[in-house]
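Q&A log
Question type: sequence-to-structure
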Amino acid sequence: MLTGLQPVGPSAVAAAGQVYTHEGPQDFVIPHELTDSEIRATIDDYVTAARGAIEAGFDGVELHGANGYLIHQFLAPNSNQRADAWGGSPEKRIRFAVETARAVTEAIGAERVGFRLSPGNPFNDIDESDTADLEATYTALVEALAPLNLGYLHQLEAAGMRDLTYRLRKAWPATFILNPFTGRQPTGPAELELLDNGTADLLAYGALFLANPDLPARLARGGPFNTPDPATFYGGDEKGFTDYPTLEEARA
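Response status: OK
Response body:
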């Protein structure tokens, strides 16, 4: 959509909805279904990108297996409708993610690689509503990634997924970063308890941090919290990016 080239995917299934482009929102198009050789070439592309990042001076890379993007599309049954070695059962649907992670760790070192996942997140028209399949898929994924000794696992938690979070945390032996579901209505103590009880080693935030430049202090104090404005997330100026007040500014 941004380059004029047809996007690729595990299956020729267009997502419902729109993508943001330089010309404004555009309907998603039907992707080209990758062949076996193209899948292997795509894994090589991840390796090339990771090596380029290290050569450019970055400390590491995070494989984006979340939010409905390519790796996530291979994981989800509605976007991956293949009947070959790359689709079908949970064990086959995780293959692209695992082989990509393995190839990248071999290229730049496992300690330089993280993996982000978002089980149950419907972003970009992903449908993982089958609870049994969801649990089987992500348990298999985390158990397959664990022996690779990645630097960390980073989970974006969807609504109602706390039990799965506990399950995945138990299966993951190393650093576990959690972006906890708050409905954008955090309390502070509830989120920090996730660190105290060992559910997560680190907490990560996106939109909530955007709206609260002093978020760590607000969490420690139990708020109050500014509410993010989704209408400004993809805007073209400073509104919604640098104009949220800190606690001190709000009191002034």
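Response note: The mean pLDDT is 95.
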